Structure to design on (647 residues):
């Protein structure tokens, strides 16, 4: 039961905070306390602890524990930012519910249940996406997100249910068809190109904290869920035997990696730069998973977790810069510490050494070259385009030197950026602690691919 | 076979209605008929759980409409969704049951232990929901399509050897959350339109 304690605490806290959501002085600290308690509970749970709830088997594996801790830490800084910078009463219950579903995703062991809980989690933030509805297009963005999630989620659950219920003596094409539906369902949920239009609209219209919730917590949770579902669904042996599914994963991954990087390199504002960078990194991670190799899987999962943290750092900094700039173009003169946080977040986003994002990107690009020189070249090109995009942001922010530098009075985004950067640097200097849990999951993945 | 026919007709009614409230009532008919199809596969509490989920979801959409006139004219989308659903249902059923050696014989009245009607209804609902969702212009038909798809998913999940009580709870919640989210979007869209 201790395995379920974290998600249950957050779910209960979400209900309580919904009841008191308009008492901002209470609900903010309460949400932070609930996330801290869940963090401690997950931290105290030994890897591979098991339990059951309503006959569902639960297991907090090494990867699940790592992902849960990273996502809870990200959630904590997001809630802290909202408490300190832009109090929004509907954010707190949403954040707690998202935390509960993210922990549920990494704790459950039934593919159908993982997919169902994930869809619940992806639907919950719609409430925090709609913002100043008569002044912007946030309702349209939220409606598109709703449609994509409902479509992808139902397709995914249906494919998993069919895979589990059909007799095992089916022709290979049947399982290939189901695997293809599953991959497309997750491409919809992950906003991979060409299914990214809702993410692009969200980037322009919704508050940055809500964007952080989606791209910093839910997108990594979705990718981890995808890897776990592949492992648990029984479809992996068929995927490994049929090259077409691997080709599909590579195709979607490469289009996303290159397309996202291309869009990021010419992004008109800071938010879009971050969102397209995330889409590009997700594409690279899909290629990593598609190689069906140990280094590819490790690189993919490490890359996604780091990307989530960096996206949160950059989005919060972008939010502060936009707010302080008002109608003007954001620059470092408005909020120098937030601008600095944005720039150093970009290092993590492109996987620059010595940050912890580097090993993941290195593994993916290395195995991609081994898989096919074209695939490797495309991924390196995508990294270069991301670098161009981040450099353009540096020039945009620091291109004009103000007469006097004046730090913002409450540098919340700057401090959060410094903390995330320090964590990424510590992880980069001591990568074993971060990569070992992912490597143990990669072992499970490879065993599921070739059952005895 | 009779509940399967009711599922098909109620889906067409929900899809073809210009008023959200009528769509919500038709959606309830779809859910009830789908639950009748799955009576043999689930225990009474599980059927009741999923039935309550459907009732709450349809109630939420009914209330979100606020008046009998509010809704969206499906226009050509009705015919597109119907033709697509008919073709896709046949194609998916043929693709995913090809290897079974058992004969597919279903009586007009009586049990269906093989789950053939449940699968056909599930594919029909998934295909209809998909077509409605993809062609939707607003949250009104988006919510309708999503709820039809979830009902289809519920039918498929019943055929799986898995902890059914937990999955029933999960899917009932999913249905309610989809309805709540859809209703939230409908209310906001209306606010934008009336501003």
């Amino acid at each position: 039961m201790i395995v379920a304690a974290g998600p249950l605490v957050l779910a209960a806290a979400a209900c309580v905070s919904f009841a008191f959501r308009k008492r901002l002085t209470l609900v903010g600290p309460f949400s932070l306390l609930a996330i801290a308690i869940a963090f401690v509970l997950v931290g105290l749970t030994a890897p591979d602890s098991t339990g059951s709830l309503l006959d569902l088997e639960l297991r907090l594996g090494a990867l699940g524990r790592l992902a849960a801790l990273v996502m809870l830490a990200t959630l904590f800084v997001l809630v802290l930012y909202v408490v300190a910078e832009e109090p929004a009463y509907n954010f707190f219950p949403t954040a707690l519910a998202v935390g509960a579903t993210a922990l549920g995703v990494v704790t459950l062991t039934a593919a159908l249940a993982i997919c169902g809980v994930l869809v619940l989690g992806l639907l919950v933030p719609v409430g925090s996406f709609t913002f100043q509805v008569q002044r912007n297009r946030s309702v349209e963005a939220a409606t598109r997100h709703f449609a994509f999630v409902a479509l992808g989620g139902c397709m995914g659950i249906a494919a998993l249910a069919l895979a589990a219920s059909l007799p095992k003596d089916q022709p290979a094409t049947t399982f290939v068809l189901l695997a293809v539906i599953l991959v497309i369902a997750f491409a919809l949920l992950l906003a991979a190109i060409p299914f990214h239009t809702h993410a692009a609209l969200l980037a322009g219209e919704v508050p940055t904290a809500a964007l952080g919730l989606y791209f910093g917590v839910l997108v990594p949770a979705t990718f981890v869920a995808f890897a776990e579902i592949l492992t648990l669904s029984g479809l992996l042996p068929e995927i490994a035997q049929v090259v077409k599914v691997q080709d599909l994963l590579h195709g979607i991954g490469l289009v996303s990696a290159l397309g996202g990087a291309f869009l990021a390199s010419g992004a008109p504002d800071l938010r879009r730069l971050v969102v397209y960078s995330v889409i590009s990194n997700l594409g690279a991670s899909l290629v990593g998973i598609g190689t069906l190799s140990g280094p590819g899987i490790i690189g993919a999962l490490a890359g996604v977790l780091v990307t989530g943290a960096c996206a949160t750092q950059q989005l919060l900094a972008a939010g502060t810069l936009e707010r302080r700039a008002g109608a003007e173009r954001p620059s470092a003169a408005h909020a120098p510490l937030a601008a600095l946080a944005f720039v150093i977040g970009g290092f993590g986003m492109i996987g620059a050494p010595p940050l912890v994002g580097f090993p993941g990107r290195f593994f993916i690009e290395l195995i991609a070259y081994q898989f096919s020189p074209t695939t490797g070249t495309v991924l390196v090109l995508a990294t270069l385009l991301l670098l161009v995009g981040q450099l353009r942001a540096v020039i945009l922010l620091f291109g004009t030197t103000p007469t006097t530098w004046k730090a913002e009075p409450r540098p919340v985004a700057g401090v959060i950026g410094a903390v995330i950067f320090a964590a990424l640097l510590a992880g980069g200097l001591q990568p074993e602690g971060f990569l070992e849990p992912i490597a143990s999951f990669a072992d499970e993945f490879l065993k599921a691919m070739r059952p005895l | 076979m009779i509940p399967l026919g009711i599922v098909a007709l109620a889906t067409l009614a929900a899809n073809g209605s210009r008023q959200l409230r009528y769509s919500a009532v038709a959606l309830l008919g779809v859910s009830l008929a789908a639950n009748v199809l799955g009576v043999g596969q689930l225990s009474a509490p599980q059927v009741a759980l999923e039935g309550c989920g459907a009732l709450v979801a349809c109630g939420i959409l009914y209330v979100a409409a606020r008046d009998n006139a509010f809704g969206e004219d499906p226009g050509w989308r009705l015919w597109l969704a119907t033709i697509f659903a008919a073709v896709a249902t046949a194609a998916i059923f043929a693709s995913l049951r090809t290897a079974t050696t058992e004969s597919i014989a279903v009586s007009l009245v009586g049990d269906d232990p093989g789950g053939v009607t449940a699968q056909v209804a599930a594919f029909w609902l998934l295909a209809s929901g998909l077509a409605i969702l993809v062609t939707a212009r607003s949250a009104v038909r988006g919510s309708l399509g999503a709820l039809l798809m979830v009902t289809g998913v519920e039918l498929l999940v019943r055929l799986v050897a898995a902890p059914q009580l937990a999955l029933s709870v999960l899917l009932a919640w999913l249905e309610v959350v989809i309805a709540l989210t859809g209703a939230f979007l409908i209310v906001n869209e209306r606010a934008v339109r009336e501003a």
